[in-house]
Amino acid sequence: MLMVIDKLNYIYSPGNAYEKQALKDVNLVIDEGDFIGLIGHTGSGKSTLTQHLNGLMKATSGTIYFKGQDIYEKNYDMKSLRSKVGLVFQYPEHQLFETTVYKDVSFGPKNLGLEQLEIDLRTYDAIKMVGLGDDILDASPFELSGGQKRRVAIAGVLAMKPELLILDEPTAGLDPKGRDEILDQIAKLHRESNITIILVSHSMEDVAKYANRLVVMNKGAVVFNDTPHNVFKHYKELEDMGLAAPQVTYVMNELKVRGFSVNTSATTVEEAKEEILKALKHKL
Questions:
Q1: Got the DSSP string for 44-91?
Q2: First to last CA, the chain
Q3: What's phi and psi for 30, nearest 5 deg?
Q4: Looking at the DSSP assignment, which residues form a beta bridge with residue 87?
Q5: At residue 161, does pLDDT exceed 70?
């Protein structure tokens, strides 16, 4: 187990008129190599939870264990935690500030006090991981396209060599092509390096395609924690929470109602295609 979240609670503005419980007894286990989709309506507690995982926020009560250690223990090395649990905020390109891509990506490793050779290696490796070439290192990050800026920002986190990478709506504001490129690159990174990933997203299609497990939050609590197939079986309950299922889920359920022998747990276009072809063969 990479991380264990045990009975985590967080209250905003405790003791005054604006008091609000943002997290309610959250229990989660994150295993090494997981690709988790974290979903929930706006205000459900997703971002609050992710900011607890690398110590940016401290729980009102409860505990987080990273690799068996309580991160709230006295003298715990929070700087080390933040190098191991990388958090990429929504619109991460807004965090770019250096004059060149190299300087931006190498900022994190430099702050770790590493030797120059190690800083260079991490910077080059991170740029390759996000699908960019070395020729971009001397360019100004502000002259890049939106998708390239997003990749550079992600590379800056990867250069820290995190064991857990949290991406909060990493494709927000990108066109469909840019969105697919970023997510495919993240999926490739997961496959090739086995890095643990938490993807926060409002796109049910994206989490169905890439994640092996979905965590659904509502009003600060975890209401589902299961495979995409099992979670999207509860699409009616998801609708009650202001969410939905992938369009494929609705198509498959409608086909079932109309008498086609299909498995309604299909969540991707490819799975639906196979089910529909099987059903058509059966009818013939």
A1: SSHHHHHHHHTTSS--SEEEEEETTEETTSTT--HHHHHHHEEEE-SS
A2: 49
A3: -110, 115
A4: 166
A5: yes
